[in-house]
Amino acid sequence: MKILVLAPFGKCEPYGEENLMKVKRPDTEFSFECLFDVFPLPYNTYIYNTLKCINAAVERCIKAEKQGYDAVVLSCMLDPGLLEARAVVDIPVTATFESAAHLACMMAKRYSVVTTDAMTGSGIDMRLVDLYGVRQKLASIRWINITADQLYPEITPTEEVARRVVEVSKKCVEEDGAELIIPGCTIIGALCTKLFEKDSVKAIGVPVIDPQIVAFKQAEMMVDLCKLAGYPAVSRYGLWRKQPQEEFEEFRKWMKEHPSPEQYYQK
């Protein structure tokens, strides 16, 4: 089994590859990439940035399928490109917020999301909670007041990130009734997995699930379901119905031969 793990922004999560190596199946190979060549910023928080990352992530998924990857994991809690990629490739595509939220609903009666800042927590995360139909079990969304671009260890010590995660998570448990914590950023999740070393219950009182690990293991499962049970990656009946292949190919050929919207309108 061969999986592409793609951080859909310009830098990979610290310790992410190391964390995944510890949980992957013996027969699973994976590549760990980001979008630095086409998107230089180490985060994608703002809506405009996310738009650019969606396009790049979908293009990488299309290429991954041609390269023989069995699945793609989109490793960002904004899940950029998830819906669009599923509409054009036949291999499974998983994403971190969707995977973590559905697992949380299986593991706990109520869960909380501990994210970066108020912009992400009160806006983007709430939109995804509604999109995935998991609002009923959401206890709260709180934030640690460190923006995503400041989470990297060379900027903010990992111990400080963890201290704030523990502090805020305990409020989610004690004041909001959460029974499980989802890090609202894959960088936070990767840092916590490295530092807690499976002992988050001792530190906080409830489990903290790493969305990157959850989406990765779901990708392995989806590949098995495709190969062993004959399940397709998605249903093509409704939302993810493919456009006519000839039209798709002609459209992509046209885009390759014409300037991007940026190039065209910035003349």
CATH topology of the largest domain: Rossmann fold
Spatial sequence of strands, sheet with the most strands: 2-1-3-4
CATH structural architecture of the largest domain: 3-Layer(aba) Sandwich
Give the overall silhouette: globular
Structural class, by secondary structure, is alpha/beta
Biggest sheet architecture: 4 strands, parallel
Number of strands: 7
How many domains would you count in the coordinates?
Answer: 2
The tally of helices reads 11
Low-confidence parts lasting 5 or more residues at pLDDT below 50? none
User: N-to-C SSE series?
Assistant: EHEHEHEHEHEHEHHHHH
**Helix percentage range:** 40-55%
Multimeric state: single chain
Task: Describe the overall structure.
With 267 residues, the chain is an alpha/beta fold. Helices cover 49% and strands 12% of the residues. It has helices at 16-23, 47-66, 82-86, 96-107, 118-131, 158-176, 186-196, 200-204, 211-228, 245-257, 261-265, and strands at 2-7, 29-34, 71-74, 93-95, 111-115, 138-143, 181-183. It has a four-stranded parallel β-sheet with strand order 2-1-3-4, with helices on both faces. It has a three-stranded parallel β-sheet with strand order 6-5-7, with helices on both faces. The longest helix is centred in the N-terminal third of the chain and has 20 residues, at 47-66. The model has no long low-confidence stretch (mean pLDDT 94).
